[in-house]
Structure to design on (749 residues):
């Protein structure tokens, strides 16, 4: 009797589970997996989006890797952006999270302020940023001028355009900060107390307690950051259109132009799959690297 | 990219006689939303036959267009007028913003749900024609005894693609030079007259480039294009490729001379900002920091409104050595339309009916010669200082900057090199040789 009740309960739980997850499943199979598989097929075709795709085997991939002069430079610029955004972004978010985690006056206000740019995002923000970066009338150069610094040309300079985009991305680390905060609050206070008893200072506690205990969260943020950074599109599309002199012409723009301006959807599909594979490989590399660096609570190592 | 026959950054054009109130804006916004939903539904239907929605005897025609809310309102008025004159015809409208409409059109063609009649910028016709979406209107024009002369000089050129006529002109955007009369008067420089020369131009820009820093006034604004540099190679009538033969022509003397002139204006004479400076001088001619700028018909309402009483200005045709590009809007018939004859009749109405043309004159110059001839006289007093006739007279020689598909890719390569020449002082000949080589590879590419 007890067995039957348990079985019924389990079935009921399963039904509830599938009921709740079904919208995602419908969305995934209907709107994500199908188009993904079709784009994989399209990457082996010559297709303008209107006529019937013509199968051409690996020709798109061969051209991308051997004959497209924009592929490697564009990929390089995208890595440059992703590297800057992930390393600086995760680092800054961690430092800010540690400070905000302190019991200081107005802590919740600071949390809201840092999270605000994450809520208010998108094209309007990028347009406002491009005004702020205006070399002559923008507020950034105005503030720099107050301390005697002549600001650079920012988005109009081939040297400064990409750093400008990276700099802008640092203001939208609110989501990462929140995740770090959750991780920080999950670190048992006893560990810090034990370290203090052993004579550890603030930096030593941060290095030998906080960082190891937070390493799974850092890993998560790094992987999510890489995925997000490699997919960047809207910022350069709105703010620089890839310029000046292709300085911010990144993979997303490159792919977009092939698909929707040059009507080469087969080729663009190939580019998209290459980016997908690069993202997976990078994520796997990070995971591999993390095996010896990431510590999970309760985990024992040989 | 010039996606709608005009620069994308232009602000909304208020319709003459219609106050652009919040209510109107909200109304248009809702209409745009409904339109977007309709396009979404069409895409979802994917392959559905729009004529199945007809409840009357005559199947409705789907009419697609794009633009600002003000322009969309005009297109709808033209459609309403046609239905009023032809009670047996039923039109359905679908519309979007220019970029959205341009990107959705290929999908609508693919899903067999494209509008029977649709508007297309001059730059779209060549690109989208490669998708086989345009019906050849040549037989209809012959059957109706309609010749090219009914429209302004050159107006039909964008529709002529590989021996076919794929679109009819609805409006044109005459181009020339805008001058800041206040600056000219301040330095006692005579206003340029039609027929002026490039030497006159060079003398003026050097005399009128004055000041430093924030108070600097430039002789000329850099509106020839860097991101979309269609007016660069065409300045003396050259082109970086031959659209009809598919051959690259980037190293021809006309292209080379044009790019050299622009580099000289920036680096030798220092009378025009380079790309970086141009971007930092947001606003262009209307800021009053430029003695001259390139003017196109679509600037008329925005500039007049924004300049207001800040300074006086006028327009003049290009120096006589210059050619430049032609821009306009066109009406086309979808090649797979099941109601092609009916679609042709409506397209013909848009492009040749005097009443329809007069309506479209609310936002641009009508393409029909007879209406264009009286158009300027009918403009409000606010535009009295703009003498369009010399600009219209020079349109016949202007070139169409064919775009779309591989040609867009070539333009992208050219744009990068123009920036390098203007901003970094790269050698013109080397830059054009690079463009030539890259372009040849792109045009030969069969992927």
């Amino acid at each position: 009797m007890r067995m039957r009740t348990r079985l019924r309960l389990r079935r009921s739980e399963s039904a509830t589970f599938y009921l709740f997850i079904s919208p995602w499943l419908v969305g995934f199979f209907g709107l994500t997996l199908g188009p993904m598989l079709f784009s994989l097929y399209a990457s082996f075709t010559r297709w303008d989006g209107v006529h019937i795709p013509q199968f051409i085997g690996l020709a798109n991939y061969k051209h991308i890797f051997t004959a497209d002069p924009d592929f490697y430079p564009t990929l390089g610029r995208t890595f440059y952006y992703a590297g800057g955004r992930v390393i600086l972004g995760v680092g800054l978010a961690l430092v800010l999270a540690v400070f905000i985690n302190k019991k200081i006056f107005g802590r919740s206000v600071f949390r809201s302020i840092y999270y605000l740019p994450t809520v208010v995002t998108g094209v309007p923000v990028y347009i406002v940023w491009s005004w702020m970066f205006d070399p002559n009338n923008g507020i950034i150069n105005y503030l720099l001028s107050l301390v005697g610094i002549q600001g650079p040309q920012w988005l109009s300079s081939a040297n400064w355009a990409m750093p400008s985009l990276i700099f802008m991305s640092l203001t939208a680390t609110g989501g990462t900060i929140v995740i770090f905060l959750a991780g920080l609050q999950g670190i048992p206070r006893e560990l810090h107390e034990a370290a203090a008893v052993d004579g550890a200072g603030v930096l030593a506690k941060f290095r030998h307690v906080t960082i190891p205990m937070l390493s799974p969260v850092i890993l998560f943020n790094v992987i999510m950051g890489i995925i997000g950074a490699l997919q960047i599109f809207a910022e350069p599309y709105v703010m620089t259109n890839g310029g000046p002199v292709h300085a911010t012409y990144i993979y997303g723009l490159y792919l977009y132009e092939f698909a929707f301006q040059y009507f080469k959807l087969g080729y663009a599909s190939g580019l998209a799959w290459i980016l997908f594979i690069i993202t997976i490989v990078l994520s796997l590399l990070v995971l591999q690297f993390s095996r010896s660096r990431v510590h999970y609570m309760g985990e024992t190592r040989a | 990219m010039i996606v709608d026959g005009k620069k994308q950054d232009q602000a909304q054009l208020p319709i003459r006689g219609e106050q652009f109130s919040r209510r109107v804006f909200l109304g248009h916004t809702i209409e745009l939303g409904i339109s977007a939903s309709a396009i979404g539904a069409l895409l979802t239907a994917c392959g559905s036959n729009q004529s199945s929605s007809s409840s009357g005897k005559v199947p409705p025609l789907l009419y697609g267009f794009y633009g600002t809310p003000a322009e969309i309102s005009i297109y709808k008025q033209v459609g309403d007028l046609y239905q009023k004159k032809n009670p047996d015809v039923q039109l359905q409208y679908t519309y979007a913003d220019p970029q959205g409409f341009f990107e959705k059109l290929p999908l609508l063609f693919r899903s067999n749900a494209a509008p029977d009649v649709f508007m297309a910028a001059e730059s779209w016709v060549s690109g989208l024609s490669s998708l086989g979406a345009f019906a050849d209107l040549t037989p209809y024009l012959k059957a109706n005894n309609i010749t090219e002369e009914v429209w302004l000089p050159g107006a039909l050129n964008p529709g002529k693609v590989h021996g076919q006529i794929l679109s009819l002109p609805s409006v044109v955007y005459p181009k020339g030079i805008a001058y800041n009369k206040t600056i000219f008067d301040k330095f006692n420089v005579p206003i340029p007259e039609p027929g002026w020369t490039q030497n006159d131009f060079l003398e003026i820009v050097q005399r009128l480039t004055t000041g430093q820093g924030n108070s600097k006034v430039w002789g000329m604004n850099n509106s020839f294009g860097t991101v979309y540099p269609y007016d660069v190679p065409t300045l003396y009538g050259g082109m970086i490729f031959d659209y009809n033969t598919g051959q690259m022509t980037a190293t021809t003397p006309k292209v080379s001379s044009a790019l050299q002139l622009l580099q000289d204006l920036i680096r030798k004479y220092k009378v025009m900002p380079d790309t970086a400076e141009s971007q930092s001088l947001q606003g262009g001619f209307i800021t009053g920091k430029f003695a001259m700028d390139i003017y196109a018909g679509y600037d008329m309402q925005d500039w007049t409104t924004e300049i207001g009483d800040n300074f006086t200005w006028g327009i003049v045709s290009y120096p006589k050595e210059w050619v430049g590009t032609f821009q306009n809007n066109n009406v086309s018939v979808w090649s797979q339309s099941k109601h092609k004859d009916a679609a042709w009749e409506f397209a013909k109405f848009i492009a040749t009916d005097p009443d329809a043309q007069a309506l479209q004159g609310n936002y641009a110059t009508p393409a029909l010669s007879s209406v264009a001839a009286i158009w300027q006289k009918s403009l409000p007093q606010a535009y009295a200082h703009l003498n369009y006739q010399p600009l219209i007279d020079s349109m016949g020689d202007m070139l169409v900057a064919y775009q779309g598909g591989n040609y867009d890719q070539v333009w992208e390569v050219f744009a990068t090199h123009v920036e390098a020449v203007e901003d970094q002082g790269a050698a013109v000949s080397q830059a054009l040789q690079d463009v030539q080589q890259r372009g040849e590879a792109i045009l030969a590419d069969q992927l």
The CA atoms of residues 88 and 305 of chain B lie 41 Å apart.
